[in-house]
Amino acid sequence: MADDSPILDVTGRVPEPVLNVLRRLEQHGHRAHLVGGCVRDLLRGAPVHDFDIATDARPERVMALFDKTLATGLKHGTVSVKAGDCWVEVTTYRVDIGYSDHRRPDAIRFTDRLEEDLARRDFTINAMALDMRGRLTDPFGGRADLAHGLIRTVGDPAERFREDGLRILRALRFVAQLGFDLEPRTLAAMQALAAVLRHVALERVGQEWLRIAQSDWERISRLLADGPWLDLWPHPLPGWRSAFTHGRPCPAWQRMRCLWRDPDERAALALCAWSVGAGQAARDVRRAGQLLAWPRTTVRLATQVAQAACAMSGRSADDQESWTRWFWANGRRPVEMASCLLDAIAGQRSLPLWRRARRAALRQPLWSLRDLALRGDELPKEIQGPEIGRVLNQLAEEVLMGRLPNERDALLAKAQRHAAKKG
Ligand code: ATP
Ligand code: MG
């Protein structure tokens, strides 16, 4: 329940424009709190990416109180309010009614009571509210669960998962993201009610999988290998089980995440780890990415990495020259990512051809024209227009085939001979 003493100094932790939104609502006689993920992350001392506000003011009142607003989710009581350079979602306290489709409430009702609004939220750690003086409202023991690292539903877990199957996958996502444990009754209900997840659209499922892929997903590999969830989705997801069975926390995956920090790269590598790691082909990686409606760039990168990984672990008697050409055609990033992936997989199963491919990759003299020791604008001035690209490609071919060192003088001399011949 609300305690009068502040537990957190919000100044400096919450941007001033967000505090101004809270302040203005209060000045006009309303209650207003930060709620949900931002409170959880403020208490954890983790970066907050978006601040959500809950208030007893009705949406039309919120729109009247602020200059710049957008009616983003009026049906659910949400108005976006411009706060400085960003938008903050301000949502009227509400109660959700009926979940006949096991995903979304049939209707909502506004309420004046913050506690009722917190009660509709999924997990105790997501069901706290913080006012602008840093005072916490925590009716379900979220702070204690946060301290103990526990994911626990608000109220009866079976009822909450039956209402909305997506919460099952959200629970797994929070375990992966935060490194928390599942409270035993919450886990038991997730297992018993796994089938409710079938009611959730694959795009929504895909968003949670994307967040899992970008986090320390091995934390849930045992749960995924032992639990009933993977079998709920179409091919190729059920096939991932064997990757998760192998995938107990492994330093190689950890290293891989340190090397590849961009969210796109992390997601692509995770997808490959699950799919290629389970012996699936590059087309399965593409199919899974499309099924889960992941961004096109992520699916493309994952497919390239999978193709590289499959080629590098599967080509047999290829010589250096054909590897060189193949690396040139595929580019450095997918090949390097695939190398990391295969290193990690090789800790778990035998990949006899992979080491040879890696040796070939280490000998690759050039990966793109950018690596050439001579730039287009350094070519003799007789070489102009489309000829520039042609000459650079010819020089690259010489370097790739070992007929010329990748050194500026040697490349320039060759280009000058070309220009003289032309003249
Ligand atoms: P993230 O850091 O990923 O944004 P989050 O907890 O803020 O985590 P959101 O999806 O932004 O997640 O949701 C905001 C809040 O809305 C949650 O903290 C939770 O209180 C509530 N919420 C979101 N999805 C559900 C759901 N399916 N069922 C019940 N409450 C939910
Ligand atoms: Mg959020």
Please describe what this structure looks like:
- This protein is α+β, with helices and mostly antiparallel strands.
- The protein has 4 domains: 1-148, 2-Layer Sandwich (Beta Polymerase, domain 2); 150-201 and 211-228, Hydrophobic Seed Protein (Orthogonal Bundle), CATH 1.10.110.30; 236-364, no CATH class; 369-422.
- It contains 20 helices and 11 strands.
- The protein has helices at 16-27, 37-44, 59-65, 114-119, 142-148, 157-163, 166-178, 184-192, 202-213, 221-226, 241-246, 251-259, 263-275, 282-291, 296-314, 320-330, 332-346, 354-362, 386-400, 408-422, and strands at residues 32-35, 52-55, 69-73, 78-83, 86-92, 94-97, 107-110, 129-130, 136-137, 150-151, 181-182.
- The strands form 3 sheets. It has a 7-stranded mixed sheet with strand order 3-4-5-2-1-8-9.
- α9 (202-213) packs across α13 (263-275), α13 packs across α17 and α14 runs antiparallel to α15 (296-314).
- The longest helix is centred in the last third of the chain and has 19 residues, at 296-314.
- The radius of gyration is 28 Å and the shape is globular.
- The model has no long low-confidence stretch (mean pLDDT 93).
- The structure holds adenosine-5'-triphosphate (ATP) and magnesium ion.
